[in-house]
Every structure is written in C-alpha cells, then in structure tokens.
Amino acid sequence: MLVSEILAIKGKVLFTIGPNRPIAEAVEIMNEQDVGSLVVFSRGEMVGMLTFRQVLQAVQRGGADWQSLQVEGVMLREPRIASPDMEMDELRRLMVEHHQRYLPVMDGNTLLGVVSFHDVAKAVLEEQSFENRMLKNYIRNWPAGEGEE
C-alpha cells in the first residue's frame, strides 16, 4: 500500500498554525479538532510541525509560563517527510527509526497531508479485512471436486 492510498482513506483535512502563535492556542486547536499534530505554516510554506510531544516538552521546560511560549520556539523544524509514492513499510520504518508519529506528505513543494501512526494502523486493518473477504469469497466459490484426490 502506498502513502497516497493511506491519505485517500484518511482524507486530506489539514490543521495548521502560524509560528508566532502561542502554544496555548495550538493546544486548544489540537484538543478541539482531536488531532495530535499541527503543520506550522509561514508565508504559504511549511516551516515545521508541532506535535503533542513538543507541547509536553514545552510544558516541562516552561513551567508555569508554558502557555506564553510561541510555536516557533517549540516546533520540530525539519520533520522527516513522506512522499505519496512511498510504500507503507518504508513509511513505518521511517516513523519508528526517527520516533516521529506524524509525517507530512509532500509532492515536491506541495503539502498533501499528514499521515499519523494511527492512520497507518487503520490502513493495515482495512487492507487485511479486504484480503480476508477476498480469500473467503474465493474459498466459498471453489469448484466442487477440485483439489481432491
């Protein structure tokens, strides 16, 4: 399965924030939209990613003043990138090796979406379910007497 197929299953809804916005606003968006990451955009291009992991690190470092920190000071500046033609196994390996649960999917300079570890797991389950249905259908329609000796 390709990353483009995972995006098709997931949909291309994208949640973003500007680098000069406060972390508190990012937390509010992430909570309201039930997402674990935001793409950080400035002047029409991606400049980083903010995930709940970076937010937790900011809370730990910032103490009582964490809410006033800006996204720019906390975001992941150079996240690993997936391409739409990347195989799912390669995507999983990249996520695991770099401890990155959310990967932006880029086609050249165009951001197509973000794929999460959850999206990958869901795609695997759907793929297995489809294969199981196909195998059951194949077995159900097996011609009588074939394969018997």
From TrEMBL:
SMART domains: CBS (SM00116)
Pfam families: CBS
Keyword terms: CBS domain
CBS domain segment(s): 8-68, 75-130
Keyword Lipoprotein in annotation: no
Keyword NADP: no
Lineage top rank: taxon: Bacteria
Protein name from the UniProt record: CBS domain-containing protein
Species assigned in the record: Thauera phenylacetica B4P
Lineage: Bacteria, Pseudomonadati, Pseudomonadota, Betaproteobacteria, Rhodocyclales
